[in-house]
Design a protein that fits this description.
Blueprint: E1 5-6, E2 21-22, E3 42-49, H1 55-65, H2 83-88, E4 95-103, E5 106-114, H3 122-129, E6 134-140, H4 147-158, E7 162-168, H5 177-188, E8 196-197, H6 206-216, E9 229-238, E10 242-251, E11 253-255, E12 259-262, E13 267-270, E14 273-277, E15 281-283, E16 286-288, E17 292-296, E18 310-313, E19 332-338, H7 344-357, E20 362-368, E21 372-379, H8 382-396, E22 400-402, E23 409-412, E24 418-421, E25 435-448, H9 452-461, E26 465-471, E27 476-484, H10 485-489, H11 492-499, E28 505-516, E29 518-525, E30 528-529, E31 535-538, H12 539-556, E32 564-570, E33 573-580, H13 596-616, H14 623-628
Parallel strand pairs: 3-5, 3-6, 6-7, 7-8
Antiparallel strand pairs: 1-2, 4-5, 9-10, 9-18, 10-17, 11-16, 12-13, 12-18, 14-15, 14-17, 19-21, 19-22, 20-21, 23-24, 23-25, 25-27, 25-28, 26-27, 29-30, 29-31, 29-32, 32-33
Length: about 625
């Protein structure tokens, strides 16, 4: 008789919180995951959609319909494994899972990849598409086609995938199926007459989705007998097993105990384990051409397992690398420092491991006179920045300080040279350069017609230039603006959602660098420049931003024994000022009447003491002050 084991770590203990209880694999009876499926019966696909259109819920229903999840295992958004994903209700990391589906007398292997929907995690989507032959395009039956829907479709088309339109949430009272079909045909360009109608919440239409996957998505190509050629699509660090990589095998096969070579680093490793997630990690005898699975090679250096690298058999000296992925270009930069300088090595180790798990994260060492030693991090957007900050605090128990976000600027000097800067503190003083250029984006905003005027006003206030306006349907418009990226970083997305009551959606591409009248706005505390709080802004906004920044800093900096002057300056010109009043003891409390000169002596003595304090006193900038700069709009 077989005893129960923990389904998450495969140990023989009773399942703990968050773990599931499943029967162990009976070695006398091959499990469904360990049976090799003929290549013509393999289907690899991903689920793409705008944020909150039901991708993860649809993945849950597909796993239940194929028998991968039992009654004990059912949890909402099963593939969202991080606590932060469940708390925010969004998918951050793409997750792969293998299912088996019996249809028309044949057994099919379905490799599902659940992808994020937010624009900041588009790089995760593009990597997932490389491991698939098809995609389920999920569209909300009430919301219809939105900006990120189109962006993901274009990526899938570029990857030459078979796209199956799925209209989800048909059980909603506000579902408009005919309108959504019309939007799919007009805006996306797909035939929606045979679009699958389903409700991932109730399970309606799920069998139709599975049948369409088998019938419409092509089987993978690749010679199982050829030399190994596999692509790393994702990697992460495990404290016990080292680096775990998700791979898609394009040629040949890979087994445990074989020696493989990573072409980017030209290093050789012995394969310790191969397998697939079904839904938890399950070891397999091999992974062959067309399959998606995991690989463990005892890689201890995270830099040796790069996303986009090609894996070949060690003995194959003529192996050529697969195309890989386009190098990611961060758009937002911020400094990250520890509140305790002794945690600097821990922060460096944490960033090394996080950058393996998140290939879109870049970092390099940086120092600040106010905060000490830290790192300059590159992100794809503000949400990406928030997620990384929260993961550093949760997963590595770090107390960190994040400086104001910035973008890359191009500074042109009078001698004809130019330089790219991503830190406002590095911008030269006025007169030290000829001119400066800032990055522009081409933004596409889809919004109902009733909110169009307010959205256009918002874009114009952010120095936007309208380039196009078209009606996608009778009630929905798409307006295109050229906007400075720096204006989008500070609160633009929140204001966009607020003005449109959540109905507007945004997608953008980096366009070009354009000349602008920009200045560096410095914050001075008691006459000392705090380099970590400097920011670059347009000259016409400098006074308002400087005033708002001073007011915010006054709220954050605690009172001292002496008066603290907070100033905003452009070069040597002060554009705004406020003071934090000093804590003051009532030295006249014991004076009951008498000569006024006695009271004046006591007050003058107190003033002299506070001047001495001010001459030698240091003002500690609290962590909240660095976050407040995000709220100055």
């Amino acid at each position: 008789m077989l005893s129960w084991v923990c389904g998450r770590c495969r140990a023989g203990h009773s399942p703990s919180r968050g773990h599931t209880r499943v029967p162990p694999i009976d070695m006398n009876k091959p499990s469904q995951a360990s049976v090799r499926t003929p290549q013509q019966n393999i289907r690899s696909f991903c689920i793409i959609a705008h944020i909150d259109h039901g991708k993860s819920t649809l993945a849950d229903r597909l796993m239940e319909a194929t028998g991968l999840l039992g009654e004990r295992d059912k949890t909402a958004q099963y593939l969202d494994r991080m606590d932060i994903e469940r708390e925010r209700g969004i998918t951050i990391k793409a997750q792969a899972v293998r299912m088996r589906y019996d249809y028309d007398g044949e057994t099919y292997e379905l490799n599902l990849i659940d992808t994020p929907g937010h624009v900041d995690f588009g790089y995760e989507v593009s990597r997932s598409l490389s491991a698939c032959e098809g995609a389920l395009l999920v569209v909300d039956a009430a919301q219809g086609v939105e900006a990120q829907t189109l962006a993901n479709v274009y990526m899938a088309l570029d990857a030459d995938l078979e796209i199956i339109p799925v209209i989800n949430k048909i059980d909603l009272p506000g579902a408009e199926i005919d309108r959504v079909k019309e939007e799919i045909e007009e805006m996306v360009g797909l035939d929606a007459s045979s679009a699958i109608l389903c409700s991932a919440k109730t399970g309606v239409g799920i069998p139709d989705v599975l049948e369409a996957i088998v019938a419409l998505i092509p089987a993978p190509k690749g010679n199982v007998e050829a030399p190994l050629k596999a692509l790393i699509t994702d990697s992460w660090w495990d404290a016990y097993k080292g680096v775990i990589s998700i791979i898609r095998v394009f040629e040949g096969s890979i087994r445990a105990r074989e020696k493989v070579r990573f072409l980017a680093t030209d290093k050789t490793y012995e394969v310790l384990d191969v397998g697939a997630y079904a839904p938890e990690a399950t070891s397999l005898p091999e992974i062959a051409a067309g399959h998606v699975g995991y690989l463990i090679c005892n890689v201890k250096e995270v830099a040796d397992s790069k996303v986009g690298d090609t894996i070949a058999i060690a003995s194959d000296e003529t192996a050529e690398a697969l195309p890989g992925f386009q190098e990611v270009q961060p758009m937002v930069f911020a400094g990250v420092f520890t509140s305790d300088n002794g945690d600097y090595p821990v922060l460096r180790d944490a960033l090394t491991k996080l950058s393996l798990n998140d290939a879109s994260l870049t970092w390099e060492p940086e120092s600040s006179s106010a905060l000490g030693f830290g790192f300059r991090l590159g992100f794809l957007g503000l949400l990406h920045m928030e997620i990384i900050q929260e993961r550093l605090e949760r997963e590595y128990n770090l107390d960190i300080i994040t400086t104001a976000p910035s973008v890359k600027y191009r500074v042109f000097y009078k001698d004809g040279t130019d330089e790219i800067i991503d830190n406002p503190a590095k911008m030269p003083d006025p007169g030290g350069f000829d001119y400066i250029e800032e990055p522009m984006i081409l933004s596409r905003i889809q919004v109902p017609e009733e909110f169009l005027g307010a959205i256009m006003k918002l874009c114009q206030e952010r120095r936007g230039i309208q380039t196009d306006l078209k009606y996608m349907t009778s009630t929905r418009t798409q307006v295109t603006y050229e906007l400075p990226l720096a204006e989008v970083v500070f609160g633009f997305y929140d204001q966009l959602k607020s003005i449109s009551r959540g109905y507007a959606s945004l997608d953008y591409d980096v366009a070009e660098y354009r000349r602008a009248d920009l200045v560096r706005l410095d914050l001075l505390v008691n006459g000392e420049r705090v380099d970590a709080l400097s920011l670059i802004t347009h000259r016409q906004n400098a006074f308002n931003r400087g005033r708002d920044l001073c007011v915010k800093m006054k709220e954050e900096i605690p009172q001292q024994q002496f008066e603290v002057a907070i100033q905003a300056a452009i070069g040597s010109k002060i554009v705004a000022r406020t003071n934090v009043k000093a804590l003051r003891k009532n030295v006249l409390a014991k004076c009951y009447g008498g000569d006024i000169s006695r009271k004046r002596k006591l007050i003058e003595k107190q003033k002299r003491g506070k001047r001495r304090l001010k001459a030698v006193g240091n003002v500690e900038i609290p962590q909240g002050a660095f976050h407040a700069i995000l709220k100055i709009d």
